[in-house]
Amino acid sequence: MPEFDAWAPYYDFIHHGLPGEVEFYVKMAKAHGSRALEVGCGTGRICIPMAKAGVAVTALDISSGMLALCQEKIAMAGFLPAEIELVRADMRRFDLGCTYPFIAMAYRTLMHLLTPDDQAQCLRCIRRHLEPGGVFACNLWMAKPSSIPPAAITGVEVPLELVGQHPVPGENIVLFHFHAARYDEFEQQIIEQHRIQERDLRGHILRQQELHLTRAWLTRREMEHLVYRCGFRVEAVYGNFDGAPLGPDHKEMIWVLRAV
Ligand SMILES: C[S@@+](CC[C@H](N)C(=O)[O-])C[C@H]1O[C@@H](n2cnc3c(N)ncnc32)[C@H](O)[C@@H]1O
């Protein structure tokens, strides 16, 4: 997936995850044994802390760029009490030849699959990799049509907006991040445009990269139907990583699903 390879060098500067996310997945993994699978591991934000906590992780991603950075970060982490095995695979169709007591898919990764068929293929694949009674946890954006700004509906040109400035440690470079999003309500997709400018300390643009990302949203009810179809029982749905039951004002849905 070339779009994720293009993202990889900027990913850690721009994406810091959600409050309590890492701790939640590490705690869940530890509670279910000493082995886990992470689907869509990216640069290792979740799988490295899992290994630090003594959980042996298989970490899967489709992007060789993300996996290369993850490998670098594993090397830099020094001694890890448990191993991380990196696997390049598509989360819609992988066969690792083994099962796990716990599988994690953090940071809205399922939203990268744009159709119900792709989403179901992925969930069934995950289900096949769970031990009997094993647990799968993932988090998704809590989709609410009322939260979509009217100006961002399909067809309306939305200008890029500067949303962040990220200094690159030791390099005298600052990454300027511009973003615009359109929402296709019919397809339930967010079509995002990102521009990353690498600027020197005087503000001169050294390099500019245009990045595109399309993600799909699932409502709470759609997710409920989908997971039942794919062989899961809903154990809990939280609205934050502290374990508060999902309510109408939450921005995130955290699904804890058991294999049936
Ligand atoms: C939002 S990032 C999450 C990365 C990491 N888990 C984190 O929390 O920072 C989504 C990841 O999913 C990967 N991904 C997207 N589509 C995929 C697919 N079809 N199969 C496997 N990985 C995929 C991307 O390459 C990216 O690394």
State the end-to-end CA separation. Answer: 32 Å
The bound ligands are:
S-adenosylmethionine
Share of β-strand residues: 35-45%
Arithmetic mean of pLDDT: 94
Number of helices: 6
Q: How many beta-strand elements?
A: 11
- Biggest sheet, spatial arrangement of strands: 3-2-1-4-5-11-10
Low-confidence stretches: none
Helix content: 25-40%
The major sheet is characterized as: 7 strands, mixed
**In terms of structural class, how would the helical and strand content be classed?**
alpha/beta
**CATH hierarchy: architecture of the largest domain:** 3-Layer(aba) Sandwich
Outline:
globular
Describe the structure.
The chain is α/β, with parallel strands linked by helices. It folds into two domains: 2-141 and 219-259, 3-Layer(aba) Sandwich (Rossmann fold); 146-216. Helices cover 25% and strands 36% of the residues. It has six helices and eleven strands. The chain has helices at 2-14, 21-31, 47-52, 64-76, 116-128, 220-229; strands at residues 35-39, 56-61, 84-88, 100-105, 130-141, 161-168, 173-184, 189-200, 205-216, 232-238, 252-259. A seven-stranded mixed β-sheet has the order 3-2-1-4-5-11-10, with helices on both faces. Helix 3 links the parallel strand 1 and strand 2 (56-61). Helix 1 (2-14) packs parallel to helix 4 (64-76). The longest helix is centred in the N-terminal third of the chain and has 13 residues, at 2-14. The radius of gyration is 19 Å and the shape is globular. The model has no long low-confidence stretch (mean pLDDT 94). It binds S-adenosylmethionine (SAM).
